[in-house]
Amino acid sequence: LALTDEGRAYVPNIRRAFELISEATALLRPEPARLTISVTPSFATKWLIPKLPDFVAHNPLVDLRILATESLSSFQADGVDIAVRQGRPPFGPGLVVDLLFPQQVIAVCSPALLPPGAGEIAAADIQHHMLLHDAHNLWPEFMETVLGLKMAAEAKRMRFNQTALAIDAAIAGQGIALASRFLVAADLAAGRLTQPVQGDMRGTQDFHVVMPRKQRHPEPTQAVRQW
């Protein structure tokens, strides 16, 4: 038709018809639900981000925004839909709280720090190594509870403001770090880290999934919570 004068007259109408069909098709596609999840930087780096591809594959219509901060985010002021918080319930009225991970603190280091042919470091020798501290400062309690030792004043220390940084320093062979078991599970399984001493310390700062009872996007929020 386009080769004739009559056919050329129909071209704009045909083009507009295709545009209308495209617009109608776009309207039929559901818009992704945008959700904001608030977590600490260490939780985001060591647990959440490596597992996000699995969530995205099973929930393609949920558009997640990750808010990684050490500050306590507000569900209202910051537009947060769901959060992972560390501490003890209750976290406040009007919130739904689920235990995610108990705080089981273990010591970890690079396998390169172990004595030749040994699978562990003797408890008495732990303080001869660089002790990597984070903001929780659990080494004195861990030393006494798990190892039965007093923290030596001359012990070598390196301090970080985030647990993830202490873990990365341990992987790099710079010393021994303390971390919640679930945060280092992948590094232990891959052989990047090992436990220089057995035993763990049950902490009081468990990890919880927290969300308002009244949610802005109930269905996708519940999907994130269940995942």
Throw out a few tags for this protein.
5-stranded mixed beta sheet; 227 residues; alpha/beta
Q: Outline of this structure?
A:
This protein is of the alpha/beta class and 227 residues long. It is 34% helix and 23% strand. The chain contains 6 helices and 10 strands, in the order αβαβββββαβαβαββα.
Can you walk through the features of this model?
This protein has six helices and ten strands. The strands form two sheets. A five-stranded mixed sheet has the order 2-1-3-10-4. The chain has a five-stranded mixed sheet with strand order 7-6-8-5-9. The protein has helices at 5-28, 41-58, 139-145, 163-171, 181-190, 218-226; strands at 33-39, 62-68, 82-87, 95-101, 104-108, 131-133, 157-159, 176-180, 201-202, 206-212.
